[in-house]
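User: I'm writing a tutorial on reading structure tokens. Could you give me a worked example: one chain, its sequence, then its tokens, then a sentence or two explaining what the tokens reveal?
Assistant: Sure. Here is the example chain.
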Amino acid sequence: MAIAHAQQPVPTLGQILTHIEANTEQYKASVPSFLCDEHIVSQEIHDGKIRHETTVEALFRVTRSPSQRGVLEESREVKTVDGKPAGNSRLKMPIAFTGGFSGALEKFLSADHRQCFDFAPDPAAPKPKAGTAAFIFTAREAAAKDPSCASIQPGTTGKFVIDSATLQVTHIERTVPYPIGKDRDVLGTASVDFAPVTLSDKSFWLPFMVSASTSETPKTTAFRFTAHYSNYHRFAASSTILPTTSDSSTQPPSR
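And here are its predicted structure tokens:
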């Protein structure tokens, strides 16, 4: 006798967003403070060729704020710069970026900001790998007048990919207008790639790569930042950690 199995209904976009938002809140509420190894390559690029490159090895830390619930703070202890001991000098790179761990999902895929964007399946995405789905988002024009969207830059566009089984985000990227000096044609793009990591016998989806770049124009060189993360473990001892820059890419000079 044949047994018919009811096929699971395909979730709507709204249901997918609700589940992702719940995952984002769960991450903010439960991820412990942790340390990981960070490898950075920061480049200045002109006419497609690398003009200047800095490589950094660092100990990267994410800590839960003791004063603000759900707030995660990023910092790094620089070990070497271009293969040499860092010493006490201030880290200088062509371009730097922070926020991949503490704000990438909350800013674009949280319940507090859903009204700031229009979401849709990504029509330009190549055929997705089995078990994944891709979507795009665009900042709504009306969001510029919404106080809850004050942190969303007008003209923001982006895309994200999810693991269909868990509805966890595996990739997110955004592009924004990024004027440098008087050059208003520069665009800034940043992306984060996630994978499951076990901390204290519990699985969390954490970044394994963070990238940021600016476009090249006749007035301004391009800049590119790529960081890889590995060797995650809970933070349980005191260390001397140097603060990072602000929660964004640092603005390179125009040429």
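What the tokens reveal: Residues 220 and 254 are 5 Å apart (CA to CA). The mean pLDDT is 87.
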